[in-house]
């Protein structure tokens, strides 16, 4: 069951949307990695990072800019009104239970931001009655250390979950240029997650969720200073779910999030605060599903001399039909922005099961993203910027039988009024200004599949894409035209063994396509077993061949890393 496609609970098999689920076992095997590292193994996604853990990270879904992926944590919207997009480096992977990835524009459901897709992250939930504590420790090379503890369960009408995590590493030198400090750039993170629910009766449930982290990491901008970046985030949600009749249910939600970034000793601070109010209605009438939502979102930014805010009010309508071989999903949304006026987006999707185990799908949709407050009101900004817009069309073919599956998805997403950093213009800066000067065409084909071969479970994907700036006919920076993943898992001698491969063709680091980032192939291994009752051991090796590569020019990436962790979790 997934909720991200249309903000209501639906079986994955019923969806027309192109989705992936990352489960708890996959996250557990990742060890001390990041959310972006896990997403990089999902079809259609590439990442880039300016150095080691805790440094600026970008996630490109189907070739779209990182700011075009809408990110939610337990339904709480995450975004930065300075850089645009979520601060991936501040989201603690160790406290995550599941991730749902929706590829393709979804502004007709979520409004501004979802031009490339949606990633929704879920923390752990209490269940099972008896309290279930856990404690874990892990160690790796480069001074890597992790510690975690938590408890979950339920009693009476209550369910609860609490998790704590500490991660740190001595790191490595993040820069490859002689003008940067050659010291190791370390990383420290403290994080907490909590969930408290109360089932008042069979019809009504109250729930509160929290995820927060405090990250302190090193980076290099000078030759002598120990430069530090401080990143704090939290996501708070309050929900009331009500099942008024067998057919009609509602959800009332208030959410608040914060993204705070500071650098030292270089004095820079930016602070984004977001608030959302959602009233979701759902009617299930046989094979028909109707949804209607009222939503308000408030954005606020404090950054140097900027202290600005804005809001959007929206009405979203949805209709779903699932009957026999036919699946239909229609969505329409009207957003009224306090500064840009009204914007209407829509999407239409159709799926047809034309033969046993086979289904073809077709989807069209529009999307937009309003400029960030920094893009409009900083010294590099232009208050007259227009929202970025896109129109997307895609075709899909899927086959599934037991443990075997195959999918092929072809898409084309045209982006207009793209905001780029351009030559000096109407802004205060003499070095350049943000302007609506770009157009892009994001097109490609994603092939993915799973199968069982003897004792091995295999999965893989390959992407052929062409994310191109149509103004100068150049590839968009830091995005490869071809990339692929391949994974295998088996059970032998009491251990669960897993291996995965990631490979990427070359990329360009700049818009002019003159700075080349070479292609690379990475091999990762993991093994997991229960060493004594209720105590699990996980061992992982990343970048087995110690490959040297870059996803951002002059920024190093981690070489071979080894990690061993133990976790006590009585059942």
Describe this entry's structure for a reader.
Helices cover 4% and strands 62% of the residues. It is mostly beta strands. It has a 22-stranded antiparallel β-barrel. A five-stranded mixed β-sheet has the order 1-6-7-4-5. The radius of gyration is 23 Å and the shape is globular. The chain starts with 17 loop residues before the first strand and ends with a strand.
Distance between the termini: 25 Å
Which radius of gyration do the C-alpha atoms yield? 23 Å
Spans of at least 5 consecutive residues whose pLDDT stays below 50 are: none
The mean pLDDT is 94
Shape: globular
Comma- or semicolon-separated keywords:
4 helices; 571 residues; mainly beta; single chain; 4% helix
SSE blueprint and pairings:
Elements: E1 18-22, H1 24-29, H2 35-39, E2 45-49, E3 57-61, E4 69-73, E5 76-78, E6 96-103, H3 107-110, E7 117-123, E8 132-140, E9 144-155, E10 158-172, E11 185-199, E12 204-219, E13 227-243, E14 248-264, E15 268-285, E16 288-303, E17 306-323, E18 326-337, E19 341-355, E20 358-369, H4 373-377, E21 388-401, E22 404-422, E23 433-453, E24 456-465, E25 468-469, E26 474-475, E27 482-492, E28 495-504, E29 507-508, E30 516-517, E31 520-532, E32 535-542, E33 561-568
Parallel strand pairs: 4-7
Antiparallel strand pairs: 1-6, 2-3, 4-5, 6-7, 8-9, 8-33, 9-10, 10-11, 11-12, 12-13, 13-14, 14-15, 15-16, 16-17, 17-18, 18-19, 19-20, 20-21, 21-22, 22-23, 23-24, 23-25, 24-27, 25-26, 27-28, 28-31, 29-30, 31-32, 32-33
